[in-house]
Amino acid sequence: MSFPFSFYQESAQVIQNKLGAFQPEVAxxxxxxLGFMGDVVENPIVIPYGDIPHFKVSTAPGHKGQLVCGTLxxxxxxxxxxxxxxxxxxxxxxxxxxxxxxxxxxxxKLVLTNAAGCVNRDWEVGDIMLITDHIKFxxxxxxxxxxxxxxxxxxxxxxxxxTPRFQDAARQSAQKLGLTLREGVYCYFPGPQFETPxxxxxxxxxxGDACGMSTAPEAIAAAHAGMEVxxxxxxxxxxxxxxxxxxxxxxxNETAEARKGPFSELVLKCLEKM
Length: 274
Description:
There is one protein chain. The chain is of the alpha/beta class and 274 residues long. The protein has one domain: 3-Layer(aba) Sandwich (Rossmann fold), CATH 3.40.50. The protein has helices at residues 5-19, 92-95, 97-105, 164-177, 197-205, 216-224, 249-258, 260-273, and strands at residues 26-30, 42-48, 66-72, 75-81, 109-118, 128-135, 181-188, 210-212, 228-238. Helix 4 links the parallel strand 6 and strand 7. The longest helix has 15 residues, at 5-19.
């Protein structure tokens, strides 16, 4: 069952009341181990998800579960420190609910980050990947149910779900910073189990370069609402079957922590150009 548009309006109104005259223009969703970006927001206004009506609470390890609004790299931002996942028991509409609310608050641009497993054998753990497209075959769309015309059309075009001009800005930013920026396709898997070696091989055959359990639903909701999207994956581990070793959530967070310096530099440089 779809949420009525009034739910989104109520959530947006509570956020706006707390922000006063401040109106963010760029929304940011920070994935596992990457929430530190919210800690460097200038003049922050912090709103716990639990204080926003109809919002769900993030239960994933390392996700603070709060909205931080302020200034970052000269841009007015609304940073989600933690996201909701389908594997937590939430519907896809609930997973992408915050993106639609932030559009109503004034955000027209969205930066999505995630920690992902590396499918591409030519890359290495710790690489940063610019998401150029994604594959999501599993289960329903976040747009399933009654269409909310206030956000967008029944059948939205997603030919360029990740905005080309933002991708160009990311390439230029990486070059200026002297960073190697991988480019590839993100494959969405619902989790919470890591992908099997067979699933990883299938993703590679289909053209995937990374696998993860987030991002795609939020990108779809953003595209439906007419938002421009920039996406990055931090490749925190090689996917199952590539190396002869088990996978763990601890490895994901450890790699993200070790690589947070160059990752944050890249995101900040991109923000300047958005």
